[in-house]
Specification:
Distance between the termini of chain A: 48 Å
Oligomer: heterodimer
Largest interface: A-B, 47 and 47 residues
Helix content of chain A: over 70%
Strand content of chain A: under 5%
Number of domains of chain A: 2
Number of strands of chain B: 0
Order of helices and strands of chain A: HHH
Order of helices and strands of chain B: HHHHHH
CATH architecture of chain B: Up-down Bundle
Number of helices of chain B: 6
CATH superfamily of chain B: Cytochrome c oxidase, subunit III, four-helix bundle
Structural class of chain A: mainly alpha
Largest sheet of chain B: none
């Protein structure tokens, strides 16, 4: 982190590829949701949403190119969210 | 002020990320509420969910993903010194944001027309789980729509700044942070879409 104003310019081609992947994943998730797979529908939808979210975070939001500290901060926020969700369900399911 | 003031762009971005984490927790709370209501009112909650128009939801997803692409390209363009392209892309993002809100308006008005809104007569006659679904649907997509409005206003302001020369290839942190906010709005929609329109 010596150069605090460092630049990482993403090429238009890379951004377009990420966008194409996001559109493709949207088509896949809509397609899967039209077939009845029972509980698998929920896991497929969530897994695809997480992959799309990861693409947005890493490339559109430049998390891949930021200093490592940003990734750790993001993981801390994610863990907080998981504890929040997990503990709520410990209460709801086993009350 | 042409004097070289101290600038810390990484610090500015870090501040933005910290703010975005608080936004994640805000929407996280609504997602927890969704999951808990689904587990307690399963069938009625899901039945109401299937009444949403998944085609409009899909179109809005494509619109928002594309608006994120143009925002991301605008940042790269400013970094390369191509302000003209950046302005065109940002206008594109603003047009797509408007398109998103118009589609949302159509969706909401068709539901409201059928009396399906918090406190609406038709909704009051439905089972508790269905009421819970529509209340959560309005709160979540309403709060998200508010974020679209704020993000659009922010990007509109950045458009002015670029035109006035305040944002350029050696000072673009304002654009970076506004674009980060816009991507967050997109990121949250990426989760709202399957939860409300596809899974139930």
């Amino acid at each position: 982190m010596n150069d605090t104003n460092s630049q990482h310019i993403l090429s238009y081609a890379l951004l377009l590829r990420v966008w194409a992947a996001l559109l493709a994943l949207t088509v896949v998730t809509v397609g899967i949701s039209r077939i009845d797979l029972g509980a698998l529908n929920i896991w497929a939808a969530l897994a695809i949403a997480c992959s799309k979210g990861t693409l947005v975070l890493l490339f559109f939001m430049h998390l891949k190119y930021e200093s490592r500290l940003f990734a750790w901060m993001f993981l801390a926020a994610l863990c907080t969210l998981c504890i929040f969700i997990g503990f709520t369900f410990l209460d709801v399911l086993y009350r | 002020m042409s004097v070289d003031a101290h600038r810390d762009d990484t610090g500015a971005r870090m501040g933005m990320w910290l703010f975005l984490f608080s936004e994640l927790l805000l929407f996280g709370g609504l997602f927890v509420l969704y999951a808990v209501t689904l587990s307690t009112h399963g069938e009625a909650f899901a039945a109401a969910g299937r009444e949403l128009n998944w085609v409009l939801g899909t179109i809005n997803t494509l619109v928002l993903l594309t608006s994120s692409l143009t925002a991301a390209i605008a940042l790269s363009a400013v970094q390369k010194g191509n302000s003209a392209l950046a302005l065109r892309c940002l206008w594109g993002t603003l047009a797509l944001a408007l398109c998103f809100l118009v589609i949302k308006y159509v969706e909401w008005s068709s539901k409201i027309h059928h009396g399906l809104y918090p406190g609406g007569a038709q909704l009051a006659e439905r089972p508790e789980g269905q009421m819970a679904f529509f209340n959560l649907y309005y709160v979540t997509t309403g709060l998200h729509g508010l974020h679209v409005l704020i993000g659009g206003a922010l990007l509109g302001w950045v458009v002015l700044k670029i035109r006035q020369g305040g944002v350029h290839r050696s000072n673009f942190v304002l654009l970076e942070n506004s674009v980060l906010y816009w991507h967050l709005v997109d990121l949250i929609w990426i989760f709202i879409f399957p939860l409300y329109y596809l899974m139930l």
